[in-house]
């Protein structure tokens, strides 16, 4: 599972470097609310992310620069229950900043891959892993279109926010379950969460997307149950 941003396009190494310097200079490394074990490069009002958008017409929503309820709750869970990943090979699907990957690595996972479709997330994951002294391998790909990867656990933080995506992710996770891969989901009860298929493992109150620590929201950590064939 090796696909780094700079492998895709010989010209992209310079870009990668520029983005790395931009993030390092403009997004300070801050402790994550309620997860003092992890520090992340975090966008704030002064970060000037618009400059990235101006430079690159392909620039999408900078999910990788913010906290999400699903990732926060799943990271907290992995740190509280390291037995869920210790010694295992873990894939973080839709990794964003890499918060869940970093929690898995800190909890003793044998290997951690962080997959996302956003090239900027690859850079953020690399920087955030380094800031936390852990090893995480970024993968730039939409793995939901392929076969189950060779891992023991798939972690999914906040990936059920759009109907079509949620459908594709659920179908992929079903194929993974069929191969004996464990699935852990963290989510603040977004609209397209497949709730009927989930078993709640834990709930925490966390911030969601915002900077505003006052807007706490209960979010769950779940396992995905096998499809019932009744
Ligand atoms: C709401 S953010 C959550 C990020 C992180 N998991 C967290 O909870 O903090 C969703 C992330 O999923 C990524 N994403 C969307 N579709 C994807 C796909 N098909 N495969 C991998 N990543 C995807 C986005 O680029 C974004 O970084």
Automatic annotation (TrEMBL):
GO terms for biological process: methylation. The keyword Transferase applies. It comes from the Bacteria. Keywords: Methyltransferase, Transferase. GO terms for molecular function: protein-lysine N-methyltransferase activity. InterPro entries: Ribosomal_L11_MeTrfase_PrmA (IPR050078), SAM-dependent_MTases_sf (IPR029063). The keyword Membrane does not apply. PANTHER family: ELECTRON TRANSFER FLAVOPROTEIN BETA SUBUNIT LYSINE METHYLTRANSFERASE (PTHR43648:SF1). This is Methyltransferase. It comes from Rhizobium lusitanum. The lineage of its organism: Bacteria, Pseudomonadati, Pseudomonadota, Alphaproteobacteria, Hyphomicrobiales.
């Amino acid at each position: 599972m090796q696909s780094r941003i700079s492998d895709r396009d010989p010209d992209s190494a310079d870009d990668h470097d520029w983005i790395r310097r931009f993030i390092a200079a403009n997004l300070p490394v801050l402790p994550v609310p309620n997860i003092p074990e992890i520090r992340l490069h975090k966008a704030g009002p002064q970060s000037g992310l618009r400059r990235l958008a101006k430079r690159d017409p392909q620039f999408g929503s900078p999910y990788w620069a913010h906290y999400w309820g699903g990732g926060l709750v799943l990271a907290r869970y992995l740190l509280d229950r390291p037995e869920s990943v210790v010694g295992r090979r873990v894939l973080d699907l839709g990794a964003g900043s890499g918060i869940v990957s970093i929690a898995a690595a800190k909890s003793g996972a044998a290997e951690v891959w962080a997959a996302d479709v956003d090239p900027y997330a690859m850079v953020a994951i690399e920087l955030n892993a380094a800031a936390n002294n852990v090893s995480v391998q970024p993968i730039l790909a939409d793995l939901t279109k392929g076969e189950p990867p060779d891992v023991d656990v798939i972690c999914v933080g906040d990936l059920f926010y759009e109907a079509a995506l949620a459908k594709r992710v659920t179908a992929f996770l079903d194929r993974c379950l069929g191969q004996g891969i464990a699935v852990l989901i963290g989510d603040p009860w977004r609209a397209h969460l497949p709730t009927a298929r989930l078993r709640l493992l834990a709930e925490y109150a966390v911030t969601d997307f915002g900077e505003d620590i006052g807007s706490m929201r209960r979010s769950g950590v779940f396992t995905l149950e096998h499809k019932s064939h009744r």
